[in-house]
Here is the input.
Amino acid sequence: MPALQARRRRVTPELATVLRLLEAGGAHLVNVGHGRSPAARQAAEAFQRAWAGEIGAVVSWPARAASWLRPATRLAAGAPDAWVIADTAAGWAGPGRRLAETGIWRASATIAFAGLADPALPGLAGHHATEGLRGAAADGSVWLIDDGALIQLAHR
Here is the structure.
């Protein structure tokens, strides 16, 4: 446990909140999805280094694609307890819609980084890809999508 605590002291407030939300939800096995921007890749890599549980699939996707079927199928596979997403709202719209169509993935079992904390996200990705989605803002506060609206919560 001391090694885990030492790793946790070196994480950003945003990452600390992502980890806390997953732990509070009882997650052990998580799948990680991310866009291909440097910021999204870095967030996903930092999460992988800090997560003390198991990591199943790690899947990336382009900002534009003819279809997001392959990355969505890979990200939904393996019966994870939760999913972690690092991307922008625009980058998440396609994969999010496709994931919602799988019937396996659930927005409410997904924790995202600050890039998805965008009021435009529900309009871009749709209700099924966003309703119940939670995440961490850069300052470590929590946000969620409820009834199609982005709600910023105080630090918890």
Remarks:
- The chain is about 40% helix and 20% strand.
